[in-house]
C-alpha cells in the first residue's frame, strides 16, 4: 500500500469521519487529552509527595500512588501514548524518533505492570548462621487459626493504611462458626512486657516475676528473671539505684549481719588557704575516703578543718599536727601532716618555702581510713525460688542485712530501706520469659523508656453474643484469644509470607567503617543459597550497590528471571543481623529496553538532522494534524514494582523470632 | 609523691598570655596532616571545616578586642592552651526558641563551651530526642529537638578540640585506615623514636605558647611525623592541590570574575556594543577555567565525582551554566546568552560561598549507599546538568517576557523564543535521561526501579511541567509568552525538586542530601517569580491586543 505524501495526509484528515475506529484513535490520541493527562498527573504526583511528608511513605503509596484511581490514570496515559502513535499511521521514516520515544514510555509502563502482577518483593531479616526460605512480602495480612474444621484463614489487612483506631474499628466475618474478628485499635508505641510462665516441658531453671514498689516515688519496677540451667545466679541493676539478684540458694542471715569487709584507703592531700575549694587529692586505692578537708585561718592561726559525708566535723590546729599521726573521732581515720608552707612558691618545679614577705599557706598531709566498698553500700535484694508459688529473700544496704523472709505469690514484704517493698507476682520452677505487647501507659513507664517501640493491633473475637477480652497482637507475631470456655483461637498480624523455592543462609555480616570514625563504609552480607531439590549450594555477596542474585546463571540476571538480594538494613546494636530486600521482577527487561528507547528517542527527536527542531519540518504537517498529534513523552509514572526501603522499619517490627507470645 | 607534686606544679604554670604566632609559621602549620571526618586532610581544611561547623564562619572575631582570628591560628591556640577557650563564645546558636527554652541570653548569637555545658535544659532535650530516636528511628522530631541535637553535636566537636583528642596527627602504625592518635600516642606506638618526635612537638607547642615558634620547627615536625609511616600519608600532590584550593578559593574567584565581567559588559554596552560579545567570551572562558580548577581539585582531593551534596551540585550547576553559555553563544553568535548566564552562575556561586551552613563546602566521604557507583555519578551529573539547562532557559525567558511586556525594543523575540526552547529541549533530554538512569541505578543498588520517592516524584513533576510547555507550543496552544511563562513556572518545580524536597519536605530515601535550610528565602524567590510572570504576561497580552501604532 504505497501512497504519496499528499494521499497520506488526505487520508489522515478524512478517516476520523469515515471510520469509528479512527475516530476513537484520533480522539484518544489528541494533544488536548495528552496535555490534560499530564497536567493532572503533575498535580497528583506533587500532591502525593506533599502528602507523604505529612504522613509517611506507606500511606502515600497506598492512598495516592498505588490507589486504583492513580493506576487508572496511568493506564489512560498509556492508551493516549499508543493512540497518538497510531494517529500518524502509516508511519514514515521521519516518525522514528517520535515513535521510539512514545513507545519507550509504553514499554516501561508495561514492564512496571508485569512486575506488579507477577513480581515478588519483600524482605528477609537474618541472624548470622540463620537460614530461611520465608520471604516477608510487603503486603500485611491478618490470620486466624483454630476455627474448628476450616482451620486457617488469611485476609489482606494493613492496620496503618486502613487507619484503624478506637474511633474507626475494622472487622471481618469469618466463614465458620459465625465468628467475627474486630480490630479495635492500632498503635505504633507498644512495648513488649516480659512475663514469666511455668513450662515443665521446655522451661529453663527457676524464675521469678517481681515488682519493686516505692511508695515515696510512687513507682513500680517490674522484673522477670529466669536462671538458665548452667547459671548459679543472675544479677540485674535497677537504674543504678539498687540491684536484684536471683540465686539458686540463699545464705539466710539475720537482720543486722554485716555483708562485706571494710577496706583501707590512703589519700594524699594538698590544701591551700587561698583556694579552699580546690585542693589536690591523690590516691592509688580504688575508693575515696569521703572526707572533705580545707585550710582556714582561725584567730590568726592555721587550722585544718575536716567534714565527712555523714556530717561529722572536726578541726585541728596545724601546730598540733606537727607531732605525728592524729586519730579522728570516728575511730578509724588518721591524718599525718607531711609538710606546711607559710608561703608556698615553686622553685624549679619543686614546692618550697618562699620569702617571708609573701603569703600563700599550704599543707600536705596523708589521710588514712577504712571504707565500705561502694558495691556493698548499694541496696541489694537477693531472691531464691523455693517452690512454684513462694520464694525467700534477703535485702541489704550499707553493708548490713536489713530484711529477710519468705514471700507467697501476690504477697508483699518491706525491704527495710525507706519506702521500698518487694512484691512477688509469680514464681516458677521451670520458667520461660515471654513477651507480651502492651501500651506504654499500662506498663510501668520507668521500665520501658529504653525499650524499642513495636507496633501492633488490638483484636476482639465475637461469636454468639459473646466477646473476648481485647488482646494486643504485635506486628509480626500472634496471640491466643479465648472466647468463653471454647478452645483458644490464634490471631496473628504481619507480613504475608512467600515460600522461596530455595533457602538462603547468612554466613557472615560485616560493617567496615570510614577511617577513624563510626560511619559505616559498607554493609557486606555473605549469603549461601541452597536449591531445595538438588541440594546444591552457591555463595554470593550482597554489598551496598551490589545485590546478590539467585539462581546464578548470567542470562537470568540479564532477563530478570532471578531473585535479587539487596542490602537494605542493619541494626547498630546487633551487628550479627542483616536485612535484605528481595526482588523478583519479570518486567525488568522491559523497563530497561523502554528506558533505552526513551533516551535515544528524545535525543533523536530534538537533534535528528533532517526532521529535528527545524521549522521546515513542522510546516510539512498540516495545521489540523498539529492540533491532533502527540502526547505525553517521558513517563516514568508507574508502579515500577516498588519497594519501600526497609532501612529501619524492618527493625521496629520483630519478625516473630525471639518474641514468643502468649 | 614526686609525680603528684609535678602535676601540681604544671597546673600553676598555665594561664599566661600568649604572644602572636608569626604568619610564616601559620603558613607551614596549614599543611600539617590531621585525620578527621573519615579522611586525612591538611590542618587548614580541618580548622576551617570544624570552625564553620561550630561558628558558621571560617574565622572568629574576638568580641572583646575585635581582633580577627583565622581558623588555623585559632585552632593552633586551642591546641596549645585549651583552657583559654572554654569561656570564649565559639558556638553559633541562632534558634531563638532553643535559647529561650534553655535560659540563654537571647541577644547573643555565640556561646561558650561552659555556658552550653551548664545549660541543663539543653541536655534534657538532647536526651529526650535521643531516646525518641532510639525507640523509633523514623520518629519525627521537632525543630527544637533538631536544633538541640545539632548544638550537642557542636559541643561534642568542641569537646574534642578542648580535650586535644581531635588533633589526630600521629599515624596508626598498623594500617592506613585505622584511627590516628594524638601526640600522646607517639611513645606508645613508636617507642623511643616516638618519644623523640614528641619532644620536638612539645618544643614547638611551648614555643607557640611563648610566642617564638619558627617555621623550621613546623617543617621538621611535619617531616618527622611523616617519616613514621610515609605510606599512610596522602600523597604530596594531593596535599598541595588541597592547600591551593583552600588558599585561593577558585569558586570565589569565579563569581568575582563573573561579577566584574557582567559589570564591564554593562559599561561596554553603553560605550562600545560590539565589544560586549568579546568581553563576554573572555570572561566566560576565564570563569570556566576557574571552575574547572575548583572542580578538578575536589575530584583529586576526594577521589570521586563532585556531585554528591547540595554544595557540589550548586557548583556543578554554575560550571555547566557557563559551559552552556559558551556553547550557545558561539553557536548563535549571540551576546544574550552571556547576559543571562553570568548572573545565574554568579548567584549560584555566591550562595555556595556565603551559606556554608546550608551548603556545606567540606569534602567528606560519601555515605555508603552512594559509594563507588558509576551510575550514581552519571545520574546526578545528568540531572544537575539538566537543571542548569533549565536555568539558562528560565533566565532567557525573563528577558523574553520583559521585552514582550515592557521594553520598547521588541525585536529579536523570535530568536529569543528559539533560544528558550532550545535550552529547554536540552534540559528535557538530560532530565529524562537522568531520571531513567536514576531508575537504573536504584534498580541496581536498592533493588527497585521506581518507588515514588519524593525526590523521584518531584523530578517527574518538573519534567511534566516542561513537557506540557513543549507539547503545547508544538501544537500552537501558546507562543512566545506562553513558552517563557512555562519555562519560569516549571523552573519553580525544578527548584522544589532540588531544594524543596530536601529542605522543606525533608522526607524520603534521598536522605543523604538533607540539611537545615532557610525556607523563607525560597518562598520569597518563588513569590517574586510568580509575580513577575503574572505581571509581565498580563502586560504582554494587553499589548498584543492593542492596535499596532505606527
Q: What would the keywords be for this entry?
A:
heterodimer; A: 662 residues; alpha+beta; 10-stranded antiparallel β-sheet; 6-stranded antiparallel β-sheet; 35 strands; B: 550 residues; mainly alpha; two-stranded antiparallel sheet; 6 strands; 3% strand
Report a brief summary of the structure:
The complex is a heterodimer of chains A (about 650) and B (about 550). In chain A, about 25% of the residues lie in helices and about 40% in strands.
Q: Characterize the quaternary organization of these chains.
A: heterodimer
Assign an overall shape of chain A: elongated
State mean pLDDT of chain B (0 to 100 scale): 87
User: Helicity of chain A, in percent?
Assistant: 10-25%
Average pLDDT taken over every residue of chain A: 83
Rg over C-alpha atoms of chain B, rounded to the nearest angstrom: 27 Å
The coarse silhouette of chain B is globular
Q: What spatial order of strands do you see in the largest sheet of chain B?
A: 1-2
Report the biggest beta sheet of chain A as strand number plus sense, adding barrel if it closes.
10 strands, antiparallel
Percent strand of chain B equals under 5%
Number of helices of chain A: 15
Separate helix tally of chain B: 20
Largest sheet of chain B, described in full?
2 strands, antiparallel
Helix content of chain B: 55-70%
What radius of gyration of chain A results from the CA coordinates?
39 Å
Outline the fold blueprint.
The complex is a heterodimer of chains A (662) and B (550).
Chain A: H1 5-18, H2 20-28, H3 31-54, H4 57-65, H5 68-86, H6 96-118, E1 120-127, E2 131-145, E3 152-156, H7 159-162, E4 170-173, E5 180-198, E6 207-214, E7 219-226, E8 233-238, E9 242-247, E10 263-272, E11 280-283, E12 291-298, E13 301-308, E14 313-317, H8 318-321, E15 326-327, E16 334-341, E17 344-347, E18 350-353, E19 362-371, H9 374-377, E20 380-385, E21 390-397, E22 400-408, E23 412-414, E24 420-428, E25 431-438, H10 445-448, E26 454-463, E27 466-467, E28 471-474, E29 477-481, E30 489-510, E31 524-531, E32 537-542, E33 548-550, H11 554-559, E34 563-571, E35 574-584, H12 588-607, H13 615-620, H14 623-628, H15 649-652
Parallel strand pairs in A: 9-20
Antiparallel strand pairs in A: 1-2, 1-35, 2-3, 2-30, 4-5, 5-25, 5-26, 6-7, 6-24, 8-9, 10-11, 10-19, 12-13, 13-14, 15-16, 16-19, 17-18, 20-21, 21-22, 23-24, 26-27, 26-28, 29-30, 30-31, 31-32, 33-34, 34-35
Helix pairs in contact in A: 1-2, 2-5, 3-4, 3-5, 5-6, 6-12
Chain B: H1 2-13, H2 23-29, E1 33-36, E2 39-42, H3 43-55, E3 59-61, E4 68-70, H4 71-80, E5 91-92, H5 96-101, E6 110-111, H6 113-118, H7 120-135, H8 143-163, H9 185-210, H10 215-228, H11 236-248, H12 250-271, H13 273-302, H14 310-332, H15 336-354, H16 374-405, H17 413-445, H18 454-474, H19 480-505, H20 519-545
Amino acid at each position: 500500500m504505497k501512497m504519496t505524501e499528499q494521499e497520506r495526509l488526505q487520508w489522515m484528515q478524512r478517516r476520523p469521519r469515515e471510520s469509528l475506529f479512527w475516530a476513537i484513535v484520533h480522539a484518544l490520541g489528541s494533544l488536548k487529552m495528552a496535555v490534560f493527562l499530564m497536567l493532572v498527573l503533575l498535580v497528583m504526583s506533587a500532591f502525593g509527595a506533599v502528602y507523604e511528608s505529612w504522613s509517611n511513605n506507606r500511606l502515600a503509596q497506598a492512598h495516592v500512588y498505588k490507589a486504583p484511581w492513580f493506576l487508572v490514570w496511568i493506564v489512560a496515559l498509556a492508551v493516549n501514548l499508543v493512540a497518538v502513535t497510531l494517529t500518524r499511521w502509516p508511519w514514515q521514516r521521519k516518525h522514528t524518533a517520535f515513535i521510539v520515544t512514545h513507545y519507550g514510555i509504553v514499554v516501561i509502563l508495561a514492564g512496571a505492570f508485569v512486575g506488579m502482577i507477577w513480581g515478588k518483593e519483600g524482605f528477609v531479616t537474618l541472624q548470622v548462621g540463620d537460614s530461611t526460605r520465608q520471604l516477608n512480602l510487603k503486603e500485611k495480612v491478618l490470620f486466624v487459626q483454630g476455627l474448628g474444621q476450616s482451620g486457617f484463614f488469611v485476609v489482606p489487612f494493613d492496620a496503618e493504611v486502613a487507619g484503624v483506631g478506637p474511633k474507626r474499628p475494622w472487622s471481618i466475618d469469618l466463614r465458620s462458626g459465625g465468628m467475627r474478628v474486630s480490630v479495635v485499635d492500632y498503635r505504633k508505641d507498644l512495648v513488649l512486657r516480659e512475663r514469666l510462665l511455668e513450662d515443665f516441658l521446655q522451661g529453663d531453671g527457676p524464675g521469678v516475676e517481681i515488682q519493686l514498689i516505692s511508695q515515696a516515688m510512687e513507682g513500680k519496677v517490674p522484673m522477670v528473671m529466669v536462671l538458665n540451667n548452667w547459671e548459679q545466679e543472675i544479677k540485674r541493676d535497677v537504674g543504678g539505684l539498687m540491684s536484684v539478684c536471683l540465686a539458686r540458694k540463699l545464705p539466710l542471715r539475720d537482720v543486722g549481719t554485716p555483708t562485706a569487709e571494710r577496706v583501707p584507703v590512703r589519700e594524699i592531700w594538698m590544701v591551700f588557704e587561698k583556694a579552699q575549694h580546690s585542693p589536690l587529692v591523690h590516691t592509688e586505692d580504688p575508693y575515696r575516703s569521703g572526707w572533705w578537708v580545707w585550710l582556714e585561718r582561725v584567730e590568726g592561726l592555721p587550722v585544718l578543718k575536716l567534714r565527712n559525708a555523714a556530717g561529722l566535723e572536726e578541726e585541728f590546729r596545724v601546730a598540733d599536727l606537727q607531732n605525728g599521726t592524729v586519730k579522728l573521732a570516728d575511730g578509724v581515720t588518721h591524718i599525718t601532716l607531711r609538710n606546711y608552707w607559710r608561703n608556698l612558691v615553686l622553685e624549679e618545679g619543686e614546692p618550697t618555702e618562699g620569702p617571708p614577705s609573701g603569703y600563700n599557706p599550704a599543707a600536705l598531709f596523708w589521710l588514712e581510713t577504712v571504707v565500705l566498698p561502694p558495691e556493698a553500700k548499694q541496696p541489694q535484694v537477693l531472691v531464691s525460688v523455693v517452690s512454684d508459688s513462694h520464694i525467700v529473700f534477703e535485702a541489704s544496704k550499707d553493708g548490713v542485712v536489713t530484711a529477710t523472709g519468705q514471700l507467697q505469690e501476690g504477697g508483699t514484704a518491706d525491704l527495710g530501706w525507706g519506702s521500698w517493698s518487694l512484691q512477688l507476682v509469680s514464681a516458677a520452677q521451670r520458667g520461660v520469659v515471654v513477651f507480651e505487647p502492651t501500651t506504654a501507659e499500662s506498663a510501668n513507664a520507668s521500665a520501658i523508656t529504653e525499650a524499642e517501640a513495636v507496633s501492633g493491633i488490638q483484636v476482639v473475637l465475637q461469636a454468639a453474643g459473646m466477646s473476648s477480652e481485647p488482646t494486643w497482637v504485635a506486628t509480626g507475631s500472634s496471640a491466643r484469644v479465648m472466647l468463653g470456655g471454647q478452645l483458644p483461637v490464634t490471631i496473628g498480624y504481619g507480613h504475608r509470607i512467600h515460600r522461596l523455592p530455595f533457602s538462603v543462609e547468612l554466613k557472615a555480616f560485616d560493617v567496615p567503617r570510614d577511617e577513624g570514625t563510626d560511619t559505616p563504609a559498607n554493609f557486606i552480607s555473605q549469603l549461601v543459597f541452597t536449591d531445595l531439590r538438588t541440594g546444591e549450594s552457591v555463595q554470593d555477596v550482597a554489598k551496598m550497590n551490589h545485590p546478590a542474585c539467585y539462581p546464578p546463571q548470567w542470562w537470568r540476571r540479564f532477563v530478570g528471571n532471578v531473585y535479587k538480594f539487596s542490602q537494605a538494613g542493619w541494626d547498630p546494636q546487633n551487628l550479627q543481623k542483616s536485612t535484605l530486600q528481595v526482588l523478583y521482577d519479570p518486567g525488568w527487561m522491559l523497563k530497561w529496553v523502554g528506558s533505552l528507547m526513551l533516551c535515544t528517542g528524545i535525543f533523536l527527536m530534538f537533534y535528528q538532522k533532517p526532521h529535528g527542531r527545524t521549522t521546515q519540518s513542522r510546516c510539512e504537517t498540516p495545521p489540523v494534524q498539529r492540533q491532533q498529534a502527540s502526547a505525553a513523552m517521558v513517563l516514568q509514572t508507574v508502579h515500577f514494582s516498588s519497594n519501600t526501603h526497609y532501612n529501619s522499619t524492618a527493625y521496629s517490627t520483630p519478625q516473630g523470632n525471639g518474641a514468643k507470645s502468649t | 609523691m614526686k609525680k603528684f607534686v609535678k602535676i601540681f606544679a604544671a597546673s600553676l604554670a598555665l594561664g599566661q598570655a600568649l604572644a602572636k604566632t608569626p604568619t610564616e609559621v601559620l603558613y607551614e602549620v596549614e599543611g600539617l596532616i590531621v585525620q578527621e571526618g573519615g579522611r586525612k586532610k591538611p590542618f587548614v581544611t580541618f580548622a576551617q571545616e570544624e570552625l564553620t561547623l561550630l561558628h558558621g564562619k571560617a574565622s572568629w572575631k574576638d568580641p572583646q578586642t575585635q581582633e580577627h582570628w583565622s581558623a588555623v591560628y585559632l585552632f593552633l591556640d586551642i591546641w596549645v592552651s585549651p583552657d583559654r577557650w572554654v569561656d570564649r563564645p565559639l558556638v553559633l546558636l541562632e534558634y531563638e526558641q532553643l535559647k529561650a527554652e534553655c535560659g540563654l541570653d537571647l541577644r547573643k548569637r555565640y556561646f561558650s563551651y561552659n555556658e552550653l555545658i551548664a545549660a541543663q535544659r539543653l541536655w534534657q532535650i538532647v536526651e529526650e530526642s535521643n531516646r525518641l530516636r532510639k525507640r523509633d528511628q523514623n520518629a519525627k522530631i521537632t525543630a527544637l529537638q533538631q536544633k538541640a541535637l545539632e548544638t550537642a553535636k557542636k559541643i561534642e566537636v568542641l569537646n574534642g578540640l578542648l580535650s586535644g583528642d581531635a588533633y589526630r596527627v600521629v599515624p596508626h602504625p598498623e594500617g592506613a585506615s585505622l584511627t590516628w592518635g594524638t601526640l600522646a600516642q607517639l611513645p606508645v606506638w613508636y617507642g623511643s623514636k616516638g618519644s623523640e618526635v614528641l619532644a620536638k612537638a612539645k618544643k614547638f607547642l611551648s614555643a607557640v605558647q611563648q610566642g617564638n615558634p619558627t617555621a623550621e620547627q613546623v617543617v621538621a615536625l611535619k617531616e618527622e611525623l611523616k617519616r613514621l609511616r610515609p605510606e599512610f600519608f596522602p600523597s604530596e600532590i594531593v596535599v598541595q592541590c588541597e592547600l591551593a584550593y583552600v588558599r585561593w578559593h577558585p569558586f570565589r574567584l569565579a563569581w568575582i570574575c563573573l561579577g566584574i565581567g557582567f559589570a564591564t559588559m554593562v559599561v561596554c554596552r553603553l560605550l562600545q556594543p560590539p565589544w560586549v560579545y568579546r568581553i563576554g567570551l573572555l570572561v566566560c572562558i576565564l570563569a570556566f577555567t576557574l571552575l574547572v580548577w575548583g572542580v578538578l581539585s575536589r575530584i583529586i582531593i576526594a577521589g570521586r565525582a563532585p556531585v554528591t551534596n547540595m554544595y557540589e551540585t550548586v557548583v556543578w550547576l554554575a560550571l555547566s551554566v557557563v559551559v552552556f553559555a559558551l556553547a550557545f553563544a558561539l553557536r548563535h553568535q549571540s551576546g544574550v546568552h552571556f547576559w543571562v548566564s553570568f548572573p545565574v552562575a554568579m548567584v549560584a556561586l555566591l550562595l555556595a560561598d556565603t551559606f556554608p551552613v546550608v551548603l556545606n563546602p567540606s569534602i567528606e566521604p560519601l555515605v555508603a549507599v552512594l559509594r563507588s557507583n558509576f551510575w550514581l555519578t552519571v545520574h546526578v551529573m545528568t540531572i544537575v546538568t539538566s537543571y542548569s539547562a533549565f536555568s539558562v532557559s528560565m533566565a532567557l525567558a525573563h528577558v523574553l517576557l520583559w521585552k514582550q511586556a515592557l521594553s520598547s525594543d521588541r525585536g529579536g523575540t523570535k530568536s529569543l523564543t528559539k533560544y528558550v526552547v532550545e535550552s529547554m529541549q536540552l534540559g528535557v533530554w538530560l532530565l529524562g535521561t537522568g531520571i531513567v538512569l536514576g531508575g537504573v541505578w536504584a534498580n541496581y543498588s536498592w533493588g527497585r526501579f521506581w518507588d515514588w520517592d519524593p525526590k523521584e516524584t518531584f523530578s517527574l513533576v518538573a519534567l511534566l511541567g516542561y513537557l506540557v510547555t513543549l507539547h503545547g507550543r508544538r501544537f500552537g496552544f501558546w507562543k512566545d509568552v506562553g513558552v517563557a511563562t512555562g519555562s519560569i513556572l516549571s523552573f519553580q518545580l525544578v527548584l522544589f525538586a532540588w531544594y524543596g524536597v530536601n529542605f522543606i519536605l525533608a522526607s524520603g530515601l534521598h536522605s543523604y542530601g538533607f540539611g537545615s535550610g532557610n525556607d523563607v528565602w525560597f518562598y520569597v524567590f518563588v513569590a517574586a517569580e510568580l509575580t513577575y510572570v503574572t505581571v509581565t504576561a498580563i502586560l504582554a497580552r494587553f499589548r498584543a491586543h492593542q492596535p499596532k501604532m505606527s
